[in-house]
Fold this sequence. Notes:
The protein is mainly β.
Amino acid sequence: SKLTNLGHLEMTWRNRVHFHPLLVRILHKSRLRYYGKPEKAMDMPYQAYFEVADGSGMMSMVLWSSLCPEWYNSMKVGTVLLLEQYAIKDSYPFKTHPTPGDSQMKRFATIEISLNDRNPPTKISIIPEEMVKPEWGLPEVKYRFITRSELDDLPHNYSCDVIGLVTFVGRVERTRKREHCEDFWLYRWAHAIDGTSDHPFILELFATSQPDVFERIHPMTYLVCTQMRVVRDLTENPSSTIYLTTSNESQIFITGWHKGQPYTKDTKVKNFIQWMKSQSEADQIKKTVIGGYYPFPRPPDNFSDY
């Protein structure tokens, strides 16, 4: 059928009601958001957004309402979609933005694609990877993997991807989303090593929309975390309190979930696998720990400072 592209949409969307089909690849995926309120009767108050791209650039795509439980788990990073009967809207100004793996890619930030179950009901088709043709010009998913030895030189809030062998995973803890509110974030601490440093990655992993993965992180699994943010406590000794925390677009993968993921082609991922092949599993198991209370960043040395 006659297709359009994201660049053409941005230039012409105000003059049209109906749009030609779009062929795009998912580059980033946010966690699922529930926006229901007790006083509002809504059947499916869910929303998730994705960053999708074609040969002309990248744009946000928002999945609404009943389409979320139907499609969210099928729409993975790297999935190619054919979209028909979608809507175009001015973009929401306060949403978070992932850091693209390809810094040269053009971003269309003024509008977003809206996928709804009515007005109009969007038609979504997933194109199997083996049917995707090179002449479509769809970009590949690119990552920003770092090694542990590179972490100490990175600035606060830098966005990166990591892979490592889990040596410690703490119990699930919770923190209030806002003061005096009854909503909580769930999170757990983990350590992962990659052989490039004596120190592990210290990871603050908030529960994403992947409960099956979040609950199964355990020592000796290969852990991949994407779109992590560097956190430095700039008031203390910066090198001793550096850790990584999840963002709204983070994805977490463990052994058993890696097959077919786009990052398996990344050079640093391949280097890590080679390093693991040279390690003794029995030696690594002796160094692993699970559970317990993990106070991090460390409290001050004396009680009056605390």
